[in-house]
Amino acid sequence: xxxxxALPKFRDGLSHVYLEHGRVDQDQKAIAFHNxxxxxxxxxxxxxxxxxxxxxxxxxxxxxxxxxxNCLVIWCGEENVRFYxxxxxxxxxxxxxIRQAELACDEDSRIAVARRMYxxxxxxxxxxxxTIEQLRGLEGVRVRDTYARWSRETGVPWHGxxxxxxxxxxxxxxxxxxxxxxxxxxxxxxxxILAAGYSPGLGFIHTGKQLSFVYDIADLYKTEVxxxxxxxxxxxxxxxxxxxxxxxxxxxxxxxxxxxxxxxDIQKVLGQRDVTDELEALLSTDPALPTPLWIPKEExx
Length: 301
Prior knowledge:
Layout: E1 16-19, E2 22-27, E3 30-35, E4 38-42, E5 49-52, E6 56-58, H1 60-68, E7 72-76, E8 83-86, H2 95-105, H3 107-121, H4 132-154, H5 173-195, H6 212-218, H7 226-236, H8 241-255, H9 258-269, H10 276-283
Parallel strand pairs: 1-5, 2-6, 5-7
Antiparallel strand pairs: 2-3, 3-4, 7-8
Helix pairs in contact: 2-3, 3-4, 4-7, 5-6, 5-7, 5-8, 5-9, 7-8
């Protein structure tokens, strides 16, 4: 990598690509996917997320090209309904992560972040006297009302959120569509979190999982993105439901310009200003130089 400043910005990306049962090789400054149908050339400069499903193999050279272009690579289950492993983001600074950890480890600041997350989901102001439990209850009502509204608008029956990851096909079409749409949304938010230098595991509302912060951020967009996509696709009853959901998610992400919103929204819920200038200053230093050393407050000049 010659110039870290030349890394593509996450907001300029083109969402995601899901691949399965094939081989991924380097193709000059891009990648090529080889499968039974032939060869598909995929530009990586504008790509923010590559999801590798079952039966995929990827070369070292292809991973290097993807990393150079700040594209997150994740290894997932069939139809992206399970998450197994991930690569690394393109940010070289730990500053966003340190600030996130400070907020998550302090009870008062964590409550403040959780409150901002809930407030961002509502279309109108929220009574500041409400507790986190009361906000959670209001959010539950809002989501249930959204399910009911889209069920009425699309004619798709809704009997509640229910699925078994061990028996995927036993779920009804709309629940399968919801899981597939949410998986795409999780992947996109995951890529944004890593690209901005935050940890996917340091959540504020969700906790205890390696993707807790991913779930926190994705919940900001589910009623706007995942639920309409799932009900709309289930109403059409396509032969390949999950594939249709992925394609519709891709188009929705582009139409709603979701990529441009995720990182600013992360900074908003964390109560942080834009750290672009500080990151660029850090990236402009010689990468061969040793990192700064920590000094306790009482010992600082």
